[in-house]
Amino acid sequence: MKPIIYYQNIDQYRYELVADYQTTVKIKPESGIHHQYFTLTMGGLLTIKAGYMWDGATFPAIDSKDFMRGSLVHDCLYQCMRLGLLPQTCRLAADEELRRICLEDGMWPIRAWWVYNCVRLFAGDCAKQKTNLTEYQVLTAP
Length: 142
Known about the structure:
Distance between the termini: 11 Å
Order of helices and strands: EEEEEEEHHHHE
Shape: globular
Strand order of the largest sheet: 3-6-5-4
Number of strands: 8
């Protein structure tokens, strides 16, 4: 019997975190969240671990230094919702975290307003829970 590999096509990710990152967010789950690449405590301490991948800004937004940290945290929080680890009611707070972090990192207020309103209007489907617990279909070869 030939050995089989199991893999996922995740080429849409553009960035990979190379060192753990911690921040405090307003989202405080009823019980701690523990995932291979992130944790979120009941007190709101979010730890994103080295190796976590995210796609940065979504067109028409552009990646810039004042967007990167916000997009990392936002994508991680949305992933928590997609996986059913956080309820959909956390979406507003996740979007507010994106705006807060972008402003902290020096983004012009008008751009932060635009980014925030775009995710409020158009990103709802990105936070919807998937029917299965894996985000991507597991493929096999050969």
